[in-house]
Amino acid sequence: MKPSFFSLYLIAILLLTNSCTMSQNPPTVTDSIDLQKYAGKWYEIASYPMSFQKDCFCVTADYTLTDKGYVTVFNSCRKGSVNGKVKSVTGKAFPVKGTQNVKLKVQFFWPFRADYWVLDKAEDYSWAVVSGSSRKYLWILSRTPYMPKETWDYITGRLLKNGFDLTKLKMMVHK
User: Fold this and answer.
1) pLDDT tens for each residue of the chain, 175 residues long
2) Among 22, 112, 126, 135, which residue has the least CB neighbours within 10 Å?
3) Residue 162, class by beta-carbon neighbours within 10 Å (0-12 exposed, 13-18 middle, 19+ buried)?
């Protein structure tokens, strides 16, 4: 039996959850996040390949700030090709107190939560870089499905200084 998109998310969250072990040299994060400005649609430009995103194209994430203080997370992709069937999963992201909203805990399946750290962002919130307390995963996000080369070069230069291996990045294909 082939695992479902949702079971792969569960497995990934289990693997990524590292509440008990904190990296000795965690990546640096941005100064603060305005969750109202961060809300909305993001396109994945590139990421470290993750099992739950296998055969995914056109990956997007939609964030909605709730009146309860958490963010609703709606992730979707097209499986197999840019015209493939849409697969999605909905979760919640909870800001970690005292971090100016740059660190969140994301939860797709109760009770498991994983780190979601915003490492870097544009002042106008046109792009963002997300990882966690370790460098095991990485996403480069943009408000548009394509990113100018100058922006890409700027982001990847900063990631190198933050200790990330750029050879692991896989570019996302969008329509």
Assistant:
1) 444 554 444 444 444 444 434 446 899 899 999 999 999 999 999 999 888 788 999 999 999 999 999 999 999 999 999 999 999 999 999 999 999 999 999 999 888 899 999 999 999 999 999 999 889 999 999 999 999 999 999 999 999 999 999 999 999 999 8
2) 22
3) middle
Rounded distance, CA 70 to CA 67, Å?
8
Output helix, strand, coil percentages for the chain, rounded to the nearest 5. Answer: 20, 35, 45
Work out whether the CA dihedral 8, 49, 141, 37 comes out positive or negative: positive
Contact 5, 12 (CB under 8 A): no
Instruction: List, as one string, the DSSP characters of 118-148.
Output: EEEE-TTSSEEEEE-SSSS--EEEESSSS--
For the stretch 90-102, what's the b/e string if a residue is b when 16 or more beta carbons lie within 10 angstroms of its beta carbon?
Answer: ebbbbbeeeeebb
Whether 61 maps to a domain, the answer reads yes
57 within 8 A of 82, measured Cβ to Cβ: yes
Q: Is residue 25 part of a domain?
A: no
